[in-house]
Amino acid sequence: MKLELRGITKSFGSLVANKDISLVVEPGQIHCLLGENGAGKSTLMNVLYGLLTPDSGQILIDDKPITIRDPKDAVAHGIGMVHQHFMLIPVFNVLENIILGSEDVRPWPFIDREAARTRIEQIANEYNFQIDPDAIIENLPIGTQQRVEILKALSHNAKILILDEPTAVLTPQETDALIEILKTLKEQGTSIIFITHKLREVLAIADVITVIRLGEVVGSTTPDEVNEEELASMMVGREVDLVVDKTPATPGDVVLSVSDLYVEDDRGLTAVKGVSFDVRRGEILAIAGVQGNGQTELVEALTGMRPVVSGKVSLNGDNLAGRSVRHILDAGVAHVPEDRQVHGLIPGMSIADNLVLDQIHSPKFGGIFGRKIKAIRENAEVRRKEFDIRSPGIDTAVGELSGGNQQKVVMARELSRELKVLICAQPTRGLDVGSIEFMHKQIVANRDAGAAVIIVSSELDEVIALGDRVAVLYDGRVQDIVPPTTSREEFGLLMAGARSTEATGVTP
Ligand SMILES: Nc1ncnc2c1ncn2[C@@H]1O[C@H](COP(=O)(O)OP(=O)(O)OP(=O)(O)O)[C@@H](O)[C@H]1O
Ligand SMILES: [Mg+2]
Questions:
Q1: pLDDT at 170 over 50
Q2: How far, in Å, is the centroid of ligand 1 from the Cα of 387?
Q3: pTM for this model (two decimals)
Q4: What is the predicted pLDDT for the residue at 504?
Q5: Could you give the CA distance from residue 212 to residue 39 in angstroms, rounded to a whole number?
Q6: Are 61 and 109 in contact (CB under 8 A)?
Q7: I want to staple 305 with a disulfide (CB 3.0 to 4.6 A). Which of 25, 292, 300, 468 is the partner?
Q8: How much is the average pLDDT of 293-318?
Q9: pLDDT per residue over 112-128, tens digit each?
Q10: Which ligand number lies closest to the CA of residue 34?
Q11: Which of 16, 43, 195, 408 to mutate to test the pocket of ligand 1 (most atoms within 8 A of CB)?
Q12: pLDDT (0 to 100) of residue 103
């Protein structure tokens, strides 16, 4: 189906999130929407999916104007959406999640599970999805959960599929699988709107690219006409350094020393199996690996969020293993968590308050007489400018910010304390190229100011760009610690657990 948006405008109070946006998506086209954090991409898609009502503008399908009052209308018109933040019910199984809201109903109150199962298996086969309809959502890897979302949209006969940053949380392998699925869908005539910050993906799959800046369309192009640098500057309106500018590290004394650490996951299985490494003052140790190889548990143990089974974590000689989060923070460890919405922010609270969450007990911002409002507000104004947090003001609830701007709030808070150790898990997930450039500079600046930095990232590009040394984690063990100049092939093998130190002959 052909989709057309004509003159869509949507404001939130005084903020115009979409300003007279028009675009056309042809049948069987992959249309990439590109734009900075807060540019208005999700807003536009939420309008299309009936989650937001536009102030003005029209939506047309096959040249006929339609009215979309809610997602039900959108679904009825053949529009499906995979959201930036998933909307599956974790304790339900795949089948239940897919039929939710559109149950094949037999005479009340029975749901025809078998009919639904057959239909889902048919679609899954058609697109070569490997999904067990009886698996519980929360036990599935994120890439599979996303396939469930896509399956759900397809089971409602979506002819126009919206994917809002589908690859931000995927491993490279999962991303490749997704791209194959999209290509099949496209061949069958499905129109796809694809939002991502990864320019390489855009150039690989887009038929048409539309760039939005500050709520307005600034241009439309195709992969044949542009390269990554040009796309980046179209998005942010200036030149962007896609390469991290960083001098060689001058490591000092060991600050953080981890030895023979064992940690269990939520199910009580050993996830970190005897990990040891040192991080020195003034260096960045990057931890690479396919997600799910113990990274999450390792970081949670280092930051006091998860118990340590055995082993030592020593910060300048002080053993942190098993200490409280508060103790570890106060010892000078800053932490940018992997899941900002769960562990990094309180969505209902203002930007200003979120920026001092960790220091509200300090005399600077709190104390026995309560919060020091003036100091908190001044701090917020400074940080908002410094980190370019796009919002109407410092009183905006963090939950109303765009995904990338939420991440900036977490970073702004964590990087603005006196810190000895900085631990960042997926620090630039969901950020636009301009913000990535900025964050990378901040991380390197902290290194050069003497912090011992640990970066955990599933983006090999980021690991190579930032790390002074790279530890590859596989199955809960440090497979090897290698220089960032190691070849991609070598990294690939290490990440797949195919080689060990002896075999590579590489010494850190
Ligand atoms: N419910 C809301 N209430 C108030 N403001 C909102 C709301 N939703 C979005 N905004 C604002 O609208 C603007 C556009 O946000 P949107 O989420 O569309 O950006 P985006 O392009 O998807 O960014 P990102 O790449 O970070 O996901 C932002 O300034 C955001 O703070
Ligand atoms: Mg968004």
A1: yes
A2: 17
A3: 0.81
A4: 43
A5: 6
A6: no
A7: 300
A8: 94
A9: 778 888 888 888 888 77
A10: 1
A11: 43
A12: 56
Instruction: Calculate mean pLDDT across residues 332-344.
Output: 85
Separation CA 340–CA 430 (nearest Å): 11
Beta-bridged to residue 454, according to DSSP, are 285, 423
Q: 16 has which bridge partners?
A: 11
d(CA 440, CA 245): 9
Check if the beta carbon of residue 212 is closer than 8 Å to that of residue 402.
Answer: no
The ligand 1 atom nearest the CA atom of 390: 29
**Residue-by-residue DSSP string for 415-482:** TTS--SEEEEESTTTT--HHHHHHHHHHHHHHHHTT-EEEEE-S-HHHHHHH-SEEEEEETTEEEEEE
158 Cβ contact list (under 8 Å, min separation 6): 75, 78, 79, 80, 190
- Going from the Cα of 401 to the center of ligand 1, the distance in angstroms, rounded, reads 5
Other residues' Cβ atoms within 10 Å of the Cβ of residue 393: 14
Distance 48 CA to ligand 2 centre (A): 14
Domains of the chain: 3-236 (3.40.50.300), 241-332+418-508 (3.40.50.300), 347-410 (no CATH)
> Counting atoms of ligand 1 from 1, which one is nearest the CA of 13?
4
- Check if the beta carbon of residue 402 is closer than 8 Å to that of residue 390: yes
Check if 35 has its Cβ closer than 6 Å to any atom of ligand 1.
yes
Residue 31 burial (CB count, 10 A): 22
Assigned token pair, 496? 């797949």
Q: Is 38 in the pocket of ligand 1 (CB under 6 A)?
A: yes
For atom 18 of ligand 1, the residue with the nearest CA is: 40
- What residue's CA is closest to ligand 1, atom 16? 40
Model confidence at 500, pLDDT cuts 50, 70, 90, reads low
Residue 43 beta carbon below 6 angstroms from any ligand 1 atom = yes
The 10s digit of each residue's pLDDT in 215-244 is 999 999 999 999 999 999 999 888 887 778
Residue located nearest, by CA, to atom 28 of ligand 1: 38
Q: Residue 395 — very low, low, confident or very high, per pLDDT cuts 50/70/90? A: very high
219 neighbors 417 (Cβ within 8 angstroms) = no
Distance 332 CA to ligand 1 centre (A): 33
**Among all ligands shown, which has an atom nearest to the Cα of 164?**
2
Residue 129 scores a pLDDT above 80: no
- Please report how many Cα atoms fall inside a 13 Å half-sphere around the Cα of residue 36, on the Cβ side: 24
Residues across the chain: 508
